[in-house]
Design a protein that fits this description.
The complex is a heterotrimer of chains A (175), B (281) and C (471).
Chain A lengths: L2 E8 L2 H12 L11 E4 L5 H5 L8 H26 L13 H27 L19 E8 H13 L4 E6 L2
Antiparallel strand pairs in A: 1-3, 1-4, 2-3
Chain B lengths: L1 H7 L1 H4 L15 E6 L8 H9 L7 H5 L8 E5 L14 E5 L18 E3 L5 E3 L9 H4 L6 E3 L5 H4 L20 E3 L4 H13 L12 H5 L5 E5 L6 H8 L7 H4 L10 E2 L11 E4 L7
Chain C lengths: L1 H4 L9 H11 L5 H27 L14 H25 L9 H21 L26 H34 L2 H10 L7 H34 L11 H27 L8 H32 L2 H12 L3 H13 L7 H4 L2 H28 L14 H24 L5 H24 L16
Helix pairs in contact in C: 3-15, 4-5, 4-8, 4-9, 4-14, 5-6, 5-9, 5-15, 6-7, 6-8, 8-9, 9-10, 9-14, 11-12, 12-14
Classes of the chains: A alpha+beta (175), B alpha+beta (281), C mainly alpha (471).
Chain lengths: 175, 281, 471
């Protein structure tokens, strides 16, 4: 049996929402909501809810970056000061805590922000070749449901989509 | 390695000026300037120009405030109002780098081009200076001078470059410079003393300004040496190093004329001035 | 109230029209756009010539002298850093507060942040005596074991600016990725190639949106404390010194307020310009302008208050240096500049209190520029008078900048303008996907409001309008 990939385009967000909800309720046996990818032109936290719990781990990297920034910051500054700036200046201590705190604060944010960015790049599935089914309408005003399924299930799913006023269904055979 | 360094020397590295600072001083070069005998002749300033390769900038740039006189004679007319002969009312104040113990110019340099030496001097590293000029802005005495142009190109027309002091450099545009207490002379004296295996004798090290002063208004020496002339003067006038709070106090005896300029700013200057004795007192 | 009936944006606008309008703006601006670009290039060439003289001959050509080691260069540095504050800070704060009226205007405001930071970053470099050694301020590993002096507020500046520049550029870039995908899908030629690379393969799937939302929120959370700390550190350049007029405890909040103030004024200026250049009347609407103007007015009053706090604490403190300096500012050689600053900064903003003036674009354009002139004077009056009248009376002096100095300051506006104009031509200056979100949520909550009104007459239909939450 071959694997198929479907892309259904909807102009009405509520209908797309309802279609995913139907898949979630196992209206078509053998197709689960985990196979569904939703594409939309705007952020849809409420529509995404129906897809179920899909975790995001970026905040862990951010936390790591922040902790790293602040500890590395102190060790780096104190190390540099202890090896080079052994000259006293202005009667201040060789390792002055107030100015180090100011810089540690900046380094905390610096590392946290960059780690957030890089974890976003690598965790959010960017840099992939877009499939042939990609529709430019998604960047305009239509919401798309993409799912991978066995050939046997394609027809009932198409019927389901039709019921929810789908505009267009594109299909490709993966293997 | 440096982590070990930090952990082992933590208490040392956390010592500020109030706790005696990080370094054990080798010398504490200090000055006493007696304003009562200063006649404002500018010989000190001229001597400084000759000794330290200071550029002569010309009339126009001098007027714009771009001169390089590390040692300047400040002239005030504060007594002119109630005097019969106002032209006699001038008072003079030789102003040069005060080599502060807690210098405000030092911590603000972004590249650490200025620091406090174990000799108690406020050193300026020309090669490291990038010319941010923050040090000068944060100097309450305004005794730091900046090379606004490549002064050397016109300051010593040939053959005058022959009279430059070979012991120190000629500075190009873009670096800050200031009085060093003639550090090249101090260096020579320390080296000679070391070779002869003895300690530096009082009066051996002498700045150009102190040497040139016709009335000996400037006394230079090491306050670590209890018997030196400058130590005796500081002691006699009851001026002590340290912060304002620790040295403050009403002077009971009007004969005690010693004071340090802007003492209340807590910068711990190394120069004690002796007040002028006024005729109406 | 008239506000209730007037909408920030036409909720019935077709999404396709949003795409076309914004994409068209990148292709055919009004001719005034090209005139402005030419003016900016001319301004830059003045600065390049001035900098050439200063670089080869020395800093003396800027008329700097012994007490006045800093002057307009540092004032401009503070000015541009300040200008950079509103874009990102307001965008982040309004994002966290779910104020969706930010959506049509935040993109260019964030671009303004980035480019005014790039302009600000030039000034510490230009003002160095030995520009060619400027990298010594950065903590790089040197074979001689040299490090910058971490005690110096100037070294803090280097840290703070690089952190702020990278964070605000990332914030701008991340927020732009979905729009870059739109440009990629509709672009041709070199634009398509550029946007294909920059869109990073964005296709708007739920995984990307989820990560996007989290990333954007995290960045916004970090940007707010960062922006506050950056201008506090800039104020530390002065507040950490012992000079009268600089050593002021209230400087960090004063600088942050001043920064927000000039940034908001700049947003208004650019708002008017972009609205005209790109025919953005549907997006940069009058109600949004009114909100921005009200915000500016509020911040102007905060700034005025902090000014008064500073004067009052000088009066109470009775520190002779500070007091003499303040009196000299108000009565001495700098008095015209000082009183212009007070007038432009504290009196002129009252024009923003009038609804008819707030809605008159030419007035807003002129007023916002004058507000920024006032803020430039403020920075000037922070830097120069202190140097003129420090503790040491022998060195008292007044100094006016030379043609070289003013030329470089003048050119910096051209540099900023050129960068900004290139940006708005190459990238969408109105966030398309977020305007769509805005109309989508507003339309829906308006519908819900109607529904509530029809079904339940006891419940007042409020709260939902303008709210982005739709749980």
């Amino acid at each position: 049996m071959s694997k198929h990939r479907l892309l259904a385009l909807f102009s009405d967000f509520e209908e797309a929402h309802a279609a995913i909800a139907d898949i979630r309720r196992n209206v078509v046996p053998g197709v689960t909501v985990d196979d569904v990818t939703m594409k939309s032109p705007i952020e849809h936290p409420d529509v995404e809810e129906v897809l179920g719990e899909r975790p995001v781990h970026i905040q862990k990297f951010t936390l790591f970056g922040a902790i790293f920034g602040v500890t590395f910051g102190f060790l780096f500054l104190a190390g540099a000061q202890a090896t080079f700036l052994v000259q006293p200046q202005g009667g201040k201590a060789v390792i002055p805590l107030p100015s180090n705190f100011v810089l540690m604060y900046e380094m905390l944010i610096f590392f946290a922000v960059w780690l957030t960015f890089f974890s976003f790049l690598f965790l959010s599935g960017l840099f992939k070749k877009r499939s042939a089914l990609y529709s430019e309408k998604v960047s305009l005003d239509q919401v798309a449901i993409m799912l991978e399924l066995n050939e046997a299930h394609t027809d009932p799913i198409k019927d389901l989509f039709q019921k929810h006023k789908v505009l267009e269904i594109r299909e490709e055979v993966i293997k | 390695m440096s982590l070990d360094n930090i952990l082992n020397n933590w208490s040392d590295y956390r010592k500020g000026a109030e706790e005696g600072g990080h370094h054990d001083y080798e010398h504490r070069w200090t000055m006493a300037i007696n304003l009562d005998v200063c006649i404002g002749c500018n010989a000190c300033s001229v001597a400084c120009y000759a000794e330290n390769n200071l550029a002569v900038v010309g009339k126009e740039r001098f007027e714009k405030g771009q001169a390089m006189h590390w040692m300047r004679i400040e002239r005030y007319w504060d007594q002119a109002a109630d005097m019969e002969h106002p032209e006699q009312g001038a008072s003079f104040l030789p102003m040069l780098c005060q080599q502060c113990g807690a210098a405000t110019c030092e911590p603000v340099c972004p590249v650490a081009a200025t620091y406090h030496t174990p000799d108690g001097l406020n050193a300026q590293v020309y090669n490291r200076c990038i010319g941010s000029r923050y040090c000068s802005n944060n100097c309450p005495f305004r005794v730091r001078y900046f090379n606004f142009y490549s002064y050397y190109e016109s300051a010593w027309p040939s053959p005058m470059e022959q009279q430059l002091n070979p012991d120190i450099s000629v500075r190009d545009k873009g670096v800050m410079e200031k009085c060093t207490f003639c550090v090249q002379r101090i260096r020579t004296v320390k080296d000679r003393a070391k070779m002869e295996d003895r300690s530096v004798v009082d009066g051996e090290a002498m700045t150009a300004c102190a040497q040139a002063c016709p009335t000996s208004a400037i006394v230079f020496g090491d306050t670590m040496d209890e018997s030196s002339a400058v130590s005796q003067l500081w002691k006699k006038h009851q001026v002590k190093r340290g912060t304002y709070q620790s040295t403050r106090g009403e002077k009971a005896n009007p004969n005690l004329r010693g004071y340090r300029i802007f003492e209340e700013l807590n910068v711990d200057p190394s120069i004690m001035y002796l007040e002028r004795v006024r005729e109406d007192v | 109230m008239t506000m209730a009936t007037e909408k920030d944006i036409n909720e019935q606008i077709a999404w396709a029209k949003i795409n076309t309008d914004v994409l068209r703006s990148m292709e055919n601006p009004r001719p005034a756009y090209w005139v402005t670009v030419a003016v900016c290039v001319a301004m830059i060439s003045v600065a390049v010539f001035a900098e050439y003289i200063q670089y080869t001959e020395g800093m003396g050509y800027a008329n700097l002298n012994n007490p006045h080691m800093w002057d307009l260069y540092i004032a401009s540095f503070v000015f541009w850093i300040g200008m950079s504050h509103s874009g990102t800070l307001l965008s982040a704060i309004l994002h966290l507060m779910h104020s969706d009226w930010r959506k049509p205007i935040y993109r260019f405001a964030e671009a303004m942040t980035t480019f005014s930071l790039l302009t600000a970053g030039l000034f510490p470099i230009i003002h160095l005596g030995r520009v060619w050694n400027m990298y010594w301020v950065l903590p790089y590993v040197s074979d001689r074991g040299h490090w910058p002096n971490f005690r110096s507020p100037l070294a803090w500046d280097a840290f703070a600016i690089s952190t702020y520049l990278s964070a605000s550029m990332l914030f701008l870039f991340i927020g732009m990725i979905p729009d870059l995908a739109i440009c990629r899908d509709h672009g041709k030629g070199w634009r398509k190639k550029l946007y294909t690379v920059l869109a990073l393969g964005w296709e708007g799937n739920d995984r990307q949106w989820r990560h996007f939302r989290k990333t954007y929120l995290l960045m916004a959370c970090f940007l707010i404390p960062l922006a506050v700390s950056v201008h506090s550190i800039v104020s530390a350049d002065f507040a950490m010194a012992i000079m009268p007029g600089w050593h002021v405890t209230s400087f960090p909040p004063y600088f942050v307020a001043g920064a927000l103030y000039s940034g908001c004024a700049a947003i208004i200026t650019l708002f008017v310009l972009l609205r005209y250049f790109f025919r953005f009347e549907d997006y940069m609407t009058l109600p949004i302008m009114e909100k921005t103007a009200k915000l500016t007015f509020a911040i102007a009053m905060v700034w005025t208050y902090l000014n008064l706090v500073e004067f009052a604490s000088i009066w109470y403190g009775h520190n002779v240096y500070d007091k003499e300096l303040l009196i000299a500012k108000a009565t001495g050689a700098y008095a015209p500049i000082f009183w212009s600053m007070i007038f432009l900064g504290s009196v002129l903003p009252f024009t923003l209190a009038f609804r008819s003036l707030r809605r008159h674009m030419p007035t807003m354009f002129v007023v916002s520029i004058l507000l920024n002139v006032g803020m430039f004077f403020e920075r000037w009056m922070i830097v120069a008078p202190t140097l003129s009248l420090s503790q040491e009376p022998h060195q008292w002096d007044v100094m006016w900048g030379s043609v070289v100095e003013w030329g470089i300051v003048f050119g910096s506006f051209g540099w900023f303008g050129l960068l900004f104009l290139i940006f708005v031509k190459v990238f969408p200056s109105v966030s398309m996907y977020e305007v769509k979100e805005m109309v989508f949520h507003r339309q829906r909550s308006a519908g819900e409001e109607d529904l509530i009104r029809m079904t339940d007459h006891t419940q007042p239909a409020t709260e939902t309008a303008g709210g982005e939450e739709s749980k």
